[in-house]
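[scheduler] slot 2 assigned
[scheduler] job type: sequence-to-structure, two independent chains
[scheduler] chain ordering preserved from manifest
[runner] begin chain α
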Amino acid sequence: MTNNLDTLATALYVTTDDLLKERPDLAPWRPAVGIVPQLTDAELVTLAMMQAMLGFTSEARWLRHARAHLRHLFPYLPQQPGYNKRLRKAPELLRRVTRILATSTSVWSDDVWIVDSTPVECGRSRETVKRSDLAGWVCTLQGLPVAFALTGAKADERQTLLDLLAAEPHILAARPGQTLIGDKNYFGRGSENELAQQGIQLLRPTRKGERQRPGGSLLKPLPQVIESVNETFKGRLDLEQHRGRTPGGVVARVMQRILALTAAIWHNDHTGQPVLRSLTAYDH
């Protein structure tokens, strides 16, 4: 099967369209009586993924590019204000589509996860910077996002992790004996006990003054794996240059990038590619 951005976009569109036909309640709310959007919700999801994949942080530039090069996929394209308004109303749809893609990959059932967090800029003024967010994520060793959240910069990473798992208890219910690998910031007897009660074994580097912890041999490649996932988000998908100016805008733009990574892994998995997290076939 041909592996390029057009085939990925077509596969994502068909999957999203089928999902919305089966579950129309997942579509962003709109009045029962009114003008039907010319850009469908499935097209919106596909357009949002392609924007993140191709590295367009400016919506205006992206839509100009799409009008010049993507009319074969999108016969109608909205103006920038309309596109922005639709995106800000669609994070839940993006999240649900992302989860559908993730759960249909062969690596969703992996019994080892890694966890980390990385700063996401929310503004340039002194006061805004004080409130800048952290994006925390749990993913498989192949980089497939399993759970994620945006929190305030002062949030405790350990508590954010516990909140992530508490928000979706069904994920752990089907995974007895899950192993979670994190860095030294995830230390703490209380949080580790809570994880253990949920059937999760936490592996992390031994901190100075601690007795040697088990699983040290598994942690040697950890920094490279985490940095590689972060580089995909920040270097390839421009997570730090999202250009969101409101909470809703930031959420939508972060969701675009998580969707793009998940879609690439999903399509690579289904087309038998050797490296699931590779974006090379899609980012041009």
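[runner] end chain α
[runner] begin chain β
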Amino acid sequence: MEYWLTVWLFALSASITPGPNNIMIMTSGLNFGIKRSMPHLMGIICGFIPMLIILGFGMSSVFLAYPFLHQAIKIIGVFYLLYLAWLIANSATTSLEKDVAKPISFVQAALFQWLNPKAWVMGTGAISAYTTLSDTFYWQVLYIAFVFFVVALPSLFLWLLGGMKMKKYLSKPNHQKVFNVTMALLLVGSILPVISALVVEYF
């Protein structure tokens, strides 16, 4: 149970951390308001969740044929997520300003997920780190997708709803630094059980 609860922590830290989707939906909220930005928000979710499921189901056949790849990807995923956390913690403060002419459509936002590097990191990281080779693999993938759906919706809406205030807060370099370090620590905390399991297994 504790192991599966960390999926929620991972999904939260990954979903709420500043990234392309969050910055874009925040900017859309500032420029066009909540109502006109909702297609953009729903497009993000309806693009990422199917992508996550397709990615998981596709990887399952490879894992079943070559079990060692699952462990290899899990180890690589852990190191990559630690690297991602380091990048988040040490990322330079930047301006959150973006010029947009009109709201991004539902279809545009959904298709963007397949080009969003953070979405790929989140998807492959979650599947490689939080699945085990068993008869319930597909259910594990669906559970991860469900968790991301539940967490992503309020996380994105928070960026949309609080756009102006959050922009003002994060525009201050010291505040942005504290936020980045906090999110990085949450990301590391979310994979500690995976690291512990790997240490026990190999050492």
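[runner] end chain β
[qc] chain β: The chain has a mean pLDDT of 80.
[scheduler] slot 2 released
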